[in-house]
Amino acid sequence: MRIKVNGEEREILSPLSLQEYLDSLGLSERRVVVEYNGEILSKEAWPNTTLKDGDRLEIVHFVGGG
Fold first, then answer.
1. Backbone angles phi, psi at 39, to 5 degrees
2. How far apart are alpha carbons 12 and 31 in whole angstroms?
3. Are 23 and 34 in contact (CB under 8 A)?
4. Per-residue pLDDT averaged across 12-31, rounded?
């Protein structure tokens, strides 16, 4: 199954929830905003959103610093 993440095609071998996918990338949910097929999803929706072939994700990861 293929999805687009920040404009790049990625292959996922089995169906995953959005939460599982973000966990596999090691992203902290406190510092991430996700747009799923053109809509920003609340963090509460991530575990119940199953990624499907052709989905588009834009993942913005905030980095602190000074």
1. -125, 135
2. 23
3. no
4. 89
Q: Scanning the structure block, which residue is given the tokens 């834009």?
A: 58
Give me the numbers of helices (H) and strands (E) for the chain, helices first please. 1, 5
Rounded to 5 degrees, φ, ψ at 16 are -130, 155
DSSP state of 52: -
Count CA within 13 A, CB hemisphere, residue 15.
6
**Residue 19, both tokens:** 């939460």
3-state secondary structure of 27: coil
**Global pTM exceeds 0.85:** yes
Distance CA 2, CA 51 (A): 10
